[in-house]
Structures are given as structure tokens and as C-alpha cells.
Design a protein that fits this description.
This protein is an alpha+beta fold. The protein contains four helices and five strands; from the N terminus they run E-H-H-E-E-E-H-E-H. This is Acetyltransferase (GNAT) family protein.
Amino acid sequence: MPSSISVHVVDFHDSVQQHALIDLLDMYARDPMGGGEALAEGVKQRLCSDLAGTPSAVSFMAYVDGQPVGLLNAMMGYSTFKAKPLMNVHDIAVMPAFRAQGIGQALLAAAAAHALHKGCCKLTLEVLSGNHTAMRSYERFGFQQYALLPENGQALFMQKWL
């Protein structure tokens, strides 16, 4: 376990944090659980400015001894059933050498604290069904699979490319 983990909200306008965010997200994208392909150059070039222009976006970066080792990207949303904001964790990535050392839990704790401060009713995320390590980490943090009524089954995350 690292002696000192710190987590901070990312400043999308800070060039050092921009580079770290892109590097960590690209590392995640190249991982089989992130799709196995590098981020496109155009994505790398515009991502931070796009995030800076997206009021619902918030990112957190974890550091060990001043080195960025983990990233959590989230988007604020809204629960119509609770009439309150919610936070969706869109990406969470930890450098391989720092996995299983509490980095992911620290990132989730920072996101949860931020969400509570913003009046959110819940955190949501999606995870690949084959990513058992991540699923165990999320369950340790308190996440559960989502179902309104158990007899109707669990919610599934779906997409349609536009």
C-alpha cells in the first residue's frame, strides 16, 4: 500500500494535468478492459478543452509521491425518480503497478464526497461483466447491481453509436 495517496479535482485548463489525464486515459483505452486500442489523436487533442466546456464533467486524479497514478472521469446527471442530481462514473483507471493498493477506492471516495457536496442521491457506473477485479472493488465500495424490482431483472447498459 502506498504511504501517501492524494486525490484532487482535475483542472482541465492546467497543461500538466491535461497531459496526465490523457496519458492515464490512453493507458486505460489500450487495456483489454478499455477496448484495447489507443485513443485517436483527435480525441487526445480536444478532450480536455471539451471537458472544460462541459459543465457536468468532473475528473479526479490520484497521486502517489506526486506522480499521477489513477484517474476517475464522471458526469453529473439527474435522477427523475428522486428529483435530485446524480453522478455517473464514466471512467476509472489505475496504472498497473499501482493496482490493488487502494487507489481506486480513494478515487471513488473523492467522487462520492464531491457528489454528496453537490446534493447527489447516488453514484452510478457501468462495468464489463468480465471485469471481475473491478466489480469486486466497486462492491467493496458499496455499489450493487441495479434493479427496481428483483423479479423484473437487473438493469443493462446499452448503447447505439450515432
